[in-house]
Amino acid sequence: MRIALFEPEIAGNVGAVLRLGACFGAAVDLIEPMGFEWDDRRVRRTAMDYIDHVAIARHAGFDAFKTSIGSQRLVLFTTKSDQSAYDFNFMPDDVLLFGKESAGIPTAVADTCDARVRIPMRPQVRSMNLATSAALALGEALRQTASLPG
After folding, report:
1. What is the pLDDT of residues 13-33, one digit of tens each?
2. Distance separating alpha carbons of residues 143 and 24, to the nearest angstrom
3. CA angle at residue 79 from 76 to 83, to 5 degrees?
4. CB 100 within 8 A of CB 133
5. N- to C-terminal Cα distance for the chain?
6. In whole angstroms, what is the distance from residue 41 CA to residue 12 CA?
7. Alpha-carbon separation of residue 57 from 75, 127, 142 (angstroms)
8. Is residue 9 predicted with pLDDT exceeding 80?
9. Taking the complete model, does pTM exceed 0.70, yes or no?
């Protein structure tokens, strides 16, 4: 299981997702450009020493990322889907894709994904924090595939 962040904009969110990946044994793909300079000090503030326990891959753009995952299924988490993540059947080698904090995923990128799912939430709000969404998504995907650590 992998987590992919499309053009993330907030270093603290990336750090939190790296820590999440370390705790659950999920690799993290960062699709550039990022909205901040890659600086271990800024990301490490949130990731702490967990950054040393997660596989991180940085990609020059979406095409490079897509090539790197080969035939792995790409599951996009988006508010623009009617399919609940809790009713979706995850597979152990899925790549869970999340969009940038301010704008999500462009249509051209979304159209290349194998599936689109959403985390159900109240209609009065727009979206969750990126790291929170990734935690809910990864936890459910690992639970379904009997891949939770420990």
Report:
1. 999 999 999 999 999 999 999
2. 11
3. 70
4. no
5. 16
6. 11
7. 18, 26, 20
8. yes
9. yes
